[in-house]
Amino acid sequence: MTTDIPKGVAAVLDHCTGSKDLTTTSFLQVYLIGVAHVSKEAAEDVRTAVLELTPRIVFLELDKERYEALVKEMQSGDKYGLERIALPKRKLIPMILNGTAPLYLLSTMYVVAGALLGAPAGVEFITATQAAQQVAAEIVLGDRPQEITIKRLMFRAAQLAADRTRARRTPLSRTDSDIGLIPPSSSGSARELAMRPSSSSLTDTTTAITHSGDPHNSPKSVTDESGTVKEDQEQSWGLDDDYLLPGVPGQTRPKGALTDVETWKRLLQTGGCEDADDVMHAFHRIVEAGAKGRPISATDILTVRGCGSKMVENLRNKALKEGDAALRELEGNALAGVKGAAGLQPSLEALNEVMGHERDVVLTRHLWETAEKANGARVIGVVGAAHVPAIRSMWPEAGTPEFQHLCEAYMTVPQQPRLGFSTTIPTIATSALLGYITWKRPRLALTMAAAAAVVTAPYLGFAMAALNRWQGFAKNLVKACETVDALEQTGDVGESFSAMP
User: pTM of the full predicted structure?
Assistant: First the structure.
């Protein structure tokens, strides 16, 4: 059966199932929508597709915990999720000590980004839920539980620290099962599947499963095939002689590196913002006023919002074509020329592996299982744009036993590493760096929000300063943006107003 494809559908996946005795078959098409998580346009694309295609099932890139939190915010009228981050200071210290502070920081940054753009984080999923209810479609949550993802993320970041330290002493040779990423009980075929070399193409279906590679086959692996440490890993944790620490004299910017202003101007212009200078000045005034509780200019908010919306859609379209490579490029550009940025590279590497590649596998398999259970009914999948190329390329192998075993492995909490030394020092170094950047470089912190998710933040002073600052800033900015939203509806947006209660 053919049908017109609504705007916003990024891929149509064919799925054919048969009965066990092969006497009957059913054929269906899975419509994949790639979204940005703070985009009004993406949300509208989702609404249009669901209402026009009237699917039996709507598959969301959410786990139960995140879905319930979004629904609760929607029902309570908490548009940007401010109540979610409004924690008393007495709860911040335990959060820092038990390692969950990065999640809070990440959540806060999403709240800030959503308010600035006028599109709450997760608005596309809420829109999908509302549209699904209108056509009596079932909602299926297909993402890995957040708790498992974070534990695997922390594990991988610590792993890189361990490898970095051990590589100084002796070449390494190990497999995933040795270090706990893939359980020893998994089939050999699953481990073999995960260890395939990286593919250079995201759209080549002959290399569907290896689009970004496994942790130990990525371009920044600790060792090559001969066991020799690669040079590009030498500075990954920023512990070498040329590591640039904040406040340490005698440090210089690499020759040819762009200045902060030049870097951000280029990013904004690439994203479609013509008046990059005006946007940067407006954002600076917003951050300064919001952090100090001063009146925030509505004009500044609208200036940043207009540019930000263009950048989000630009990045979404790029991610639909290039996958997470587009996001990695943004990360690299945002960090260009920042003192001490080398210390974040392993964290970003862990982020790309666990949040990117592993979840590509999990989402692909779970979407395939959803289609398998649909019995010929139409299915719509709503996922982040960066996942679309990977899902499309992995789809032909998603139903194989090997792919199933790999997905099951990525759904497990990793085993504790049997390491004969501490990884605390490099973790503290990265945490201190992130705290410094968050405090001193709010523009970078906003763009690099995802990097916060891989840091355990044991540096109490830095972490408390960062969390307190961002909590207050987020509260003031959200209130200001809500006022702008209300004034926009009446067409009476003034020059400025106080963000304080």
Answer: 0.71
**In sequence order, which residues have a C-beta less than 8 Å from that of residue 242 and are 6 or more positions away?**
235
Digit-by-digit pLDDT tens for the chain (501 residues) are: 446 788 889 999 988 765 444 444 567 889 999 998 788 899 999 999 999 999 999 999 999 998 998 898 888 888 888 887 777 777 777 766 666 666 677 777 778 888 888 888 888 999 999 999 999 999 999 999 988 988 888 788 778 767 766 665 555 444 554 445 666 555 555 545 554 433 333 333 322 333 333 333 333 333 334 443 333 333 322 323 333 333 334 445 454 544 556 777 777 887 788 888 898 889 889 988 888 888 899 999 999 999 888 888 888 888 888 776 665 665 555 544 444 445 556 666 777 888 889 999 999 999 999 999 998 899 999 999 889 999 999 999 999 999 999 999 999 988 765 444 344 444 444 444 444 444 444 444 444 443 333 233 334 555 566 667 777 888 888 989 998 998 877 766 555 454 443
CA distance 460 to 501: 29
Residue 154 structure tokens: 């922390």
Q: Backbone dihedral region of 335: left (phi > 0), alpha (psi from -120 to 50 degrees) or beta?
A: alpha
Q: Are 431 and 457 in contact (CB under 8 A)?
A: yes
Going from the C-alpha of 439 to that of each of 160, 215, 432, the distances in angstroms are 26, 31, 11
CA distance 403 to 365: 7
**Do 244 and 431 touch, CB atoms closer than 8 A?**
no
Query: Do residues 453 and 270 lie in contact, with contact meaning Cβ atoms separated by under 8 Å?
Result: no
Which position has the token pair 């004009």? 299
**How many residues would you count in the chain?**
501
End-to-end CA separation in angstroms for the chain: 56
Cα distances (angstroms) measured from residue 330 to each of 270, 311, 352, 411: 10, 11, 13, 28
Determine the angle formed by the axes of helices 298-322 and 460-490, rounding to 10 degrees: 110
Distance, CA of 197 to CA of 32 (rounded, Å):
27
Q: Is 195:216 a contact under the CB 8 Å cutoff?
A: yes
DSSP 194-260: HTSPPPS-SS-GGGGGGSS--TTTSTT-SB-TTSPBPGGGTTTTS-STT---TT-TT--PPTTPPPH
Nearest to 312 by CA among 449, 437, 438, 439: 449
In DSSP terms, 381 is beta-bridged to 32, 59
